[in-house]
Amino acid sequence: MNAYLLELAQALISLAVAPLLVGFIGWLKARLQGRRGAPPWQPYFVLRKLFSKEVIVSEHASWLFRFAPYVVFGSGVAVTLLIPLFCVPLPFDAMGDLLMVVYLMLLGTFFLALAGLDPGTAFGGMGASREMTVAAIAEPTIALAIFSLALRAGSTNLGQIVVNTLADPTVALNAGHLLAFVALFVVTLAETGRIPIDNPSTHLELTMIHEAMILEHSGRHLALIEWASGLKLLIFFSLLANLFVPWGVATTLSPVYLLIALPIWIGKLGLLAVVVAVLETRLAKLRLFRVPELLSMSFVLALLAVISSFLLR
Amino acid sequence: MASMFFWIMVLAFGAGTLTALVLGRGALARWSVASLAILGGGAGLGLGAQVILTGTAFSITFPDLLPLAGGLALRLDGLGAFFLVLIGLGAIPSALYGATYTAEYEEGGASMRMMGAMFSLFLATMALVTMADNVLTFLLMWEGMSLTSYYLVTTESSREDTVSAGNWYIAMTHVGLALLLGAFLLLMGGDTAGSFAALRAQADTLSSTVRSAIFLLAFLGFGSKAGIMPLHVWLPRAHPAAPSHVSALMSGVMIKLGIYGLLRFVLDLLGGGPVWWGGLILGIGAVSALLGVLYALMEHDLKRLLAYHSVENIGIILLGIGAGLMFQSYGMMALAALGIIGGLYHTLNHATFKSLLFLGAGAVLHATHTRNMEEMGGLIKKMPWTALFFLIGSAAISAIPPLNGFASEWMVFQSLLGGFKIPVPEVSVVMPIAVGMLALTSGLAAACFVKAFGITFLALPRSEEAEQAHQVSRSMRTGMGALALACVAFGLGPTLIVPRLGQILAGFPGFGGAAHTTFALQTTLVSPAAFGQVSPLFVGIGLVVILALVPLVLHVFRVNFSLRKGETWGCGRVSQTARMEYTATSFAEPLRRVFAEIYRPTRELTVDTHEESRYFIHRMQFRSEIIPWFEKRLYQPLLRFLNFVACQVRRLQAGSAHLYLAYVAVVMILLLLIARWY
Amino acid sequence: MAGLFQKIFKTGIVTESISPEDTGVVHLTGEIQKRTRKLFGRALAIRMVDAGSCNGCELEISALSSPVYDAEQFGIHFVASPRHADMLLVTGPVTRNMEVPLRKTYDAIPAPKLVVAVGDCARTCGVFKDSYAVVGSVDRVVPVDVFVDGCPPEPSDILRGILTALDRLPGKSSHPASPSSR
User: Fold this and answer.
1) Which of A41, A42, A53, A123 to mutate: most C Cβ within 10 Å?
2) Which pLDDT tens digit goes with each residue over A145-202?
3) Nearest 5°: phi and psi at C7?
4) pLDDT per position as a tens digit, B57-73
5) Do the beta carbons of residue B413 and residue B339 sit within 8 Å?
6) For residue B565, which residues of chain C lie inside 8 Å, CB to CB?
7) Strand (E) or helix (H) holding B538
8) What is the distance between the alpha carbons of residues B338 and B344, in angstroms, rounded to a whole number?
9) Is residue B632 left, alpha or beta, with left meaning phi > 0 and alpha meaning psi from -120 to 50?
10) Chain A residues with beta carbon closer than 8 angstroms to that of B290
11) Which of B141, B192, B390, B678 has a CA 20 to 30 Å removed from the CA of B581?
12) What is the pLDDT of residues C106-156, one digit of tens each?
């Protein structure tokens, strides 16, 4: 019973922490730009405001437009129940493995792209087309990068990978791991729409990838989509942190271990947030048609990681 | 019980043929043919299900029907039964759909008698292929299947592209038949009876070179029917040309009989072989999958897009089967079972969602009279049920959980990952490359179906026809709905089907117990040595619960639920027309750039300037075309060569009767001399 | 790379506080609903529309996103789509061609919404008064809540105008609206 309560808590804590993570990166970027910036908890205010506004739906849109934000949000929440955050192994771990996680995220992207095409604007179509191009190359890379870990750890269930790596740390020490980490990091930037792939704070529609798809959404729909993209950031950071550096994840359900594991997890997220904020300050956004080159590079790295896992047994 | 099903099936199909010939056109004719086809399909389903569930084969022979080479011998074992079930599952919705769909062919020049008769015969010959137990029966039924489907493909023979498609189809299918004949003849090796039992025994005595030759001939022959690259060129031509319910059957069921033949040869008759057999199948499967989806992305003819996706999915099936065969040659039977069962399960799933998609495309074609996606749009409001079913089909083919495409692709992935355990590193490295290609394929497939569904159904209508579109008839909707339900059911309940597939496999040498115990009958799918576990059922339930909870929680927190309809935001422009929407070509453009090396699109830009000054542009014309490279490099030179040879041979046809008589005399003398000598 | 970060740390935070004095250029046209003010108090999304201005006001408005004025510290950020916006920031005398787009932009913003008109042209058409090409001041096209005078007004005045609409001016009123602490 305790384990199921913990699963529920995991989902709720993810929902609570996700906006803070996005806000923290924004705050840090502001400080690096020499300005005071909005406080790290600004996204909470934004969400509260959005939930109180009305929704305007285009007269050309169909039921899919109103349904898509719920699917995106729901699939994000479903994924947080399946990945290791601060305690393993959890009861739902056996229900979804790495492939289930990757394809659940594809479910969200699929519906978001369709909702972008629905109102019939050129911006929505452009955003959907670009987003699907990025997703078509990025999703396989996630699968491959984590496969290389799964092969060494002996299971494709993510919680199991963490358990096995903690039990036998030598599993984590090989060249393939480094390649897989780099590949997964590039994909994280791509899927969450960060510089150098996409600028999350641009107002120029021709430079948008993710933003362009959601230009028509308003009110509670927009709030759900923004929350879901925060969740996606949290999920990717957690995968990067917990699969490659699993030390700090609690392996038993005792309150003491959980009380230690929770801040360690938040600390890992914070560290990754700092790295992303520094990268976003240092790098410039890539031209759109350079993005597939970067993604192909990460795909090849991930493929090399899997091949090296196969050959260096 | 089983023989009752058999006789009902055969009589139903026969009655269907006669009814079509007798009644001709009209609603009565269409519904009678459809009902008899449904009856026959249902009986076939029952027969196959019974054989699988009881585990006992069903045989029946008619040696006097064709008193040579053993006569008509039929035997349905587990493997054949699975494909017979597939035929039944495909036939029932397609026939139901076709009952009202074929009404639109009544005004044209097509012969309704032939269409109905050929449809029933097509189903009958396919069913008998799965039951064939000797060479004669198999080849006879195979050829019957090809000929009946050729007649169906060329239904609209007034159109030029249909005739050309039919020519390609009949040529390629006979090339395949020639290869199959070669394989069978080599296997028979002088024994004229050719029963499969005798062939099994014979196979053990053959040398490994002969076995390999047989394997190659069989793979290429069955592969050309299945649609492997580069022998798939008939698929994108023939499937769009045929009436949609026939396309659904061809794509969903007929090409799977190529897989059936391959499995029958390699697993059953030859009893397995060296590693390179499985490796070849795996390699060609991976290439077919990736290239199939890449070419599908660039299509804007809806049915050609779906045809290329069939090539892609056959590639995925072959990935599973190839991996399974590789494991078999190393004696790793649990993983071999996983691979082959994954391939078989994907066969079943592809049959359901591809048929669904083709029926949906047919509904769209029926409503808008065009196959070109660039002229569609906004159909989700005019044809809501069709749109919903097409959406389910699109999600299923993109391997989105918890639908069936995900479950079978999961199994294929798991079997490829199991290649980790292959003892020879140089061989096992093929597996991760295959994993990479499979992952890339499914990502691209999702992008392609966002395009296909989004451009066809969403936003504003792009042409007059799309604006006038109307809802299709109830029988068409029911056919599609049944398949959509099947997609969901197979996705949520793989644990009910997979053990049955294990039972089928258990009959083959070496598999036995491994196939039985591979999968636990719980709500979770577990792969060998617990390498991975998923439970699509629970995830499906979880998603539904979350989707229901979110609005509820929002209501509790008194979120603003007001909604108003407004204009689409277009930067303040005065009005919105369909010309401002995204097109299919522009949607696929980024991917076209990414893979430009494979596509090598041609670009032609003609600019006409005003005669007064070359700074004023009068007219611009842009044309870009993608010709698949194997057509450019392989088929066009081949066709030119054949043309050349034919022209040379034509010299023999001088037109003079005296010359022909001279030819006859010379050949007769030669034959008599040869007969004398031997 | 090191050079960039050295510079960042040496420069530090350059944001200036906004002084509470009233410069007399901000005019509230009427009572804004308390509910609306409370809703947008901490997070406001602004969509800017140039209804025919000379871009003088735009330059001043773009200074609001600079580190010196930093509107983001009040939770204000600029968005591309009016569907995401809460407030419409209009500049320029409304020219004939921009009348319809301006109205459409206003309609595309979900309720509740605010409008702030910036510059002399927005209130009185400035030097373009009575021209054949202009329709009139902004409040003839959309209902305006706050006018900010000036040609162009200083960024700090524009910011004061926005904060007046939110009732978040520092040092005034019942809302303890202070920017985030250093």
Assistant:
1) A53
2) 988 888 888 888 888 888 888 888 877 777 888 899 999 999 999 999 898 888 888 8
3) -60, -40
4) 888 888 777 767 667 88
5) no
6) none
7) helix B536-556
8) 10
9) alpha
10) none
11) B390
12) 999 998 999 999 999 999 888 888 899 999 889 899 999 999 999 899 999
B328 closest CA partner among B206, B509, B503: B509
Angle between helices A219-244 and A2-32 (to 10 degrees): 100
3-state helix, strand, coil in chain C (%, to 5): 40, 15, 45
Residue B220: the pLDDT is 95
Tokens at C43, concatenated: 């997070």
Give the global pTM.
Answer: 0.92
d(CA B242, CA B252): 13
Question: What gap in Å lies between CA B442 and CA B409, rounded to an integer?
Answer: 9
* Span B356-386, pLDDT tens digits: 999 999 999 999 988 899 888 889 999 999 9
Residue C5 domain-assigned (yes or no) = no
Closest C-alpha among B174, B158, B177, B152 to residue B37: B152
A31 close to C (CB below 8 A)? yes
Closest Cα in chain B, distance from residue C112 (Å): 11
Q: Tell me what percent of the residues of chain C surpass a pLDDT of 70.
A: 93
C10: its two tokens:
């040496």
∠ Cα B569 B575 B580 (to 5°): 75
**β-sheet bridge partners, residue C88:** C47, C115
- Collapsing DSSP to helix, strand or coil, B653 comes out as coil
Q: Which tokens belong to B594?
A: 């990414």
**Look-up of token digits 């299947």:** B145
* DSSP letter, residue C74: G
Contact C149, C178 (CB under 8 A): no
- Number of other CB atoms surrounding residue C120 within 10 Å: 23
**Cis previous bond, A196, omega within 30:** yes
- CATH number for the domain spanning C94: value is 3.40.50.12280
- The structure tokens 């040498």 sit at B509
- Domain boundaries, given as residue ranges, for chain B: 1-203, 272-531, 594-678
List, in sequence order, every residue forming a beta bridge with C48; answer none if it has no partner: C89
- Picking from A58, A75, A133, the nearest residue to B568 by CB comes out as A58
The ipTM of this complex is 0.94
Burial class (CB in 10 A: 0-12, 13-18, 19+), A219: buried
**Least CB-CB distance to A104: which of B401, B453, B587?**
B401
Per-residue pLDDT in tens (0 to 9) along chain C, 182 residues: 788 889 888 988 888 888 777 777 888 887 778 878 888 888 999 999 999 999 999 999 999 988 999 899 999 999 999 999 999 999 999 999 999 999 999 999 998 999 999 999 999 888 888 899 999 889 899 999 999 999 899 999 999 889 888 887 776 544 344 444 33
Cβ contact (<8 Å) for A216 and B569?
A: yes
DSSP class of residue B469 equals -
Provide, as residue numbers in chain B, all residues whose Cβ is less than 8 Å from the Cβ of A75.
Answer: 543
Closest CA to B292 of B318, B310, B319: B310
Q: Kindly report the nearest CA distance between residue B554 and chain C, in angstroms.
A: 18
Q: Looking at chain B, which subunits does it touch, using at least 3 CB pairs closer than 8 Å as the criterion?
A: A, C
Locate C173 and state its tokens: 């009123």
Would you give the DSSP letter of residue B569? P
* Structural domain span for residue C149: 28-163
Q: B41 and B86 in contact (C-beta within 8 Å)?
A: no
Residue for token pair 């083959």: B508
Residue C98: inside a domain, yes or no? yes
Rg of chain C in Å (alpha carbons):
17
Please state, in angstroms and rounded to a whole number, the distance separating the CA atoms of residues B308 and B232.
9
Q: With beta carbons less than 8 A apart as the criterion, state whether B288 and B232 touch.
A: yes
What are the structure tokens assigned to A112, written together? 């978001």
